[in-house]
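A quick aside before the break. I want you to see a complete sequence-to-structure record at least once, exactly as it would be stored in a machine-readable document. Don't worry about memorizing anything.
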Amino acid sequence: MSTQVTLTIPDYVYQQAKQAAQAERRPLADILNEALVQAFPTVHVSPGRAQMEKEQLAFHRLHPELMALYEGQYVAIYQGQVIDHDNDKLALVARIDEKYPSQVVLVKLVTSEPDKIIYARSPRLLK
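That is the input. The structure line, written in tokens, reads:
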């Protein structure tokens, strides 16, 4: 699916795109379209990803303490601190959604093995 739009772009951008189109003997629209596609890839990266990675690092840093206090329970980590815990994940998530509606909060089960290791075998083609 495509959408047609009209844009106003700076003259220097237009001139550079026009030169590239002439050099490559391609339509100007193709050059501009390609530049936009490259600027906005189809794979979306959540804006909260960096924050979630920080919360995961905090979980690993706090793991020994979490094991002593919350083994077998779900913990909620926000800004590197445990903010809540519960045996019932759904109840915990409901409270977190109410108190921190648009914030990135890690909810994770505390077990002796902080992360499962998943091994994926790749098929090999033989000639």
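Two observations worth writing down. The first helix runs from residue 11 to 24. The chain has four helices and three strands. We'll return to this after the break.
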